[in-house]
Amino acid sequence: MISVADVYDALTSDRPYRKAMSPYDAKEILLKGSGTDFDPRVIDAFIDAFKKGEMEITAVQV
Amino acid sequence: MERVLPAPTRLYERLRSVTPNLGRIEAVNKELWLLLSLFSLGLLFNYLVASQRMVLSFYTFPTLLSAYTYGRRHATLTAFASVLIVVLMSMQNPALVGANEGARAWLDRWLDVTAWGGTLVLTGYLMGTLYEHRTAQLRELRETYDGVLLLLRHFISKDKYTENHSYRVSVYAARIAAGLHLSASFRSSWPTMTSSTATATTRCAARRFRSRPG
What's the total number of domains in chain A? Predict the structure, then answer.
């Protein structure tokens, strides 16, 4: 579960070596890894949350 | 006051995820059960005239129950309600509480009821106080734990970027967890708790991955 969240955040944020990916592209990549890299149940839950728009964080308040 | 309920069962969690309002219904139901048990005890008391002393001791249960689930205020109120019911019923039907001979027996009877009622109220009050002590301690422990995790998060993160990353990872992970219907208590304190846990876990995993030979 945490690895899904980690990979998703890594893909959708700017890195020195590449620009940030769009959330939809990131979602597709995670979907491809379902069953091999990630637990399919976790991916299902992720997709559900994604459709509800919960996978966007606008501001970080630490 | 914040309430800490006993550890929920798996079935309870599942029901809760199906109906988000279950908590409220359940809270109302508990109060209703309390009242219902009081009234049924009253009825029982009405019919079992022969063994009224035994029935009087049954009034402890609603009080203990409310002390256990609600705390001091509710417990004391329940105790007062039970005493009120008993007094009203014995005024309406004096034969209930004691023998029906003479003025001396009357005094005895009321002394009896007063002693019983005082004990009941005291029991409720003390049990409720104990409950609130426990709750406060639990909350303090949790706050300490969250604080330690927050500190840990600051120290583990190399800079602002990794800290923000771990914060976002924690939020995502918590939302996925919510989708998987994991424990609500875990979810309730996600901003500090899971983020630090997430950082620690991913870092451990990364370290293990890096130190792997080949």
Answer: 1
Instruction: Tell me which residues of chain B, numbers 124 to 183, contact chain A at a CB-CB cutoff of 8 Å.
Output: 163-165, 167-173, 175-180
What does the pLDDT look like over B116-148, one tens digit per residue? 889 999 999 998 999 999 999 999 999 998 888
Task: List pLDDT tens digits, range B16-61.
Answer: 555 555 556 666 677 777 778 877 877 777 676 666 667 777 788 8
- ipTM reported for the complex, 2 dp: 0.80
Tokens of A12: 């959708």
Domain range enclosing A38: 2-51
Q: Residue A23, CB half-sphere, CA atoms under 13 Å: how many? A: 13
Q: Is residue A61 part of a domain?
A: no
pLDDT tens-digit profile, chain A (62 residues): 888 888 888 888 877 777 778 888 888 888 888 888 888 888 888 888 888 877 777 655 44
Helices (runs of H) and strands (runs of E) counted in chain A: 3, 0
B7 is written with which tokens? 């550890």
Decide if A38 touches B, using CB distance below 8 A.
no
Evaluate whether B126 touches B71 at the Cβ level (below 8 Å). no
From chain B, the residues in CB contact with A45 under 8 A are 176-177, 179-180
Give the count of alpha carbons within 13 A of B122, CB side only: 6
